[in-house]
Amino acid sequence: EKVLFNGKMMDREKASFSFDDRSMYFGDGVYEVIRVYSGHPYQLEMHLQRLQRSADELDIPYSIKEQQSLKERVIELIDTNGLTHDGYVYVQLSRGAAARDHLYERHIEPFIFAFTKEMEIPLDQQEQGIAVYLTEDIRWLRCDIKTVNLLGNVLAKRQAADHDCSEAIQHRGDTVTEGSSSNLFIVKDGQLMTPPADNLILNGITRQVVLDLAERQGLPVSITPFTTAELLEADEAFITSTINEITPIKEWRGTKHGRIKIGSVTKQLQTKLRADIERTRTG
Ligand code: PLP
């Protein structure tokens, strides 16, 4: 199995990176996870554009030109590793290696690596729904950047698992933000609602695709913040992510409890997303 190591294809066992990489000391790096369906990457351009934006926001020197070659390298990696089924590509761009110092210098060479992994679509979860755990969002105020510094997210995920939930739904005070590795949507009186893509959430690629599909369906959409009380009164709720696509929520746990039905709007959007993905499979 090969990995992409600073632009070069390399055996996984031979690839080792610097002790002094800043992603290790400071979580000083950004990443992307791209779905692969039957060997074809889904929404690769959008992911690479978001990687570019994350790098720009963190002042990591990474150019559009490198992005173009990364696109070709990612496709090459998928082919080389024979990822002909479903899986994903993980890409990480770190600021690079330098002696440990909070202050970064701009001449450091960024370091990029990528690997592939097989992973099936979680069809059972998509059909049966999941229980989620409501918890306070303790993350920093630039959640719009996809950085590898994910401590708030991993603590929230563990909390959720400790309450037999598959995902944590985070809120800042009363205002709902997003999952630990997913975006959140609710449906109320036929209207699809999701929090705005401001600094408090990651603007998910799946979120953007779902909003696009909803608009094309003529579904009324409201992109405004909502409260935990509104969340618990929703008719339907689901989360979105690259890995899990659309996953319905069937139960709330945490400070508030309750059950919720998997509704027709969720199912309709699942069907539309599936159709969009199936077009990717055929190349
Ligand atoms: N929000 C967070 C915090 C995430 O980590 C992720 C994905 O991992 C998402 C949202 C969903 O984003 P996407 O649909 O681009 O995978």
From TrEMBL:
Gene3D superfamilies: 3.30.470.10, D-amino Acid Aminotransferase, subunit A, domain 2. GO terms for molecular function: D-alanine-2-oxoglutarate aminotransferase activity; pyridoxal phosphate binding. CDD domains: D-AAT_like. Its EC number is 2.6.1.21. It catalyses: D-alanine + 2-oxoglutarate = D-glutamate + pyruvate. One of its GO terms (cellular component) is cytosol. The keyword Coiled coil does not apply. Pfam families: Aminotran_4. One of its GO terms (biological process) is amino acid biosynthetic process. The keyword Nucleotidyltransferase does not apply. Its cofactor is pyridoxal 5'-phosphate. It comes from the Bacteria. Keywords: Aminotransferase, Pyridoxal phosphate, Transferase. Belongs to the class-IV pyridoxal-phosphate-dependent aminotransferase family. Homodimer. Acts on the D-isomers of alanine, leucine, aspartate, glutamate, aminobutyrate, norvaline and asparagine. The enzyme transfers an amino group from a substrate D-amino acid to the pyridoxal phosphate cofactor to form pyridoxamine and an alpha-keto acid in the first half-reaction. This is D-alanine aminotransferase.
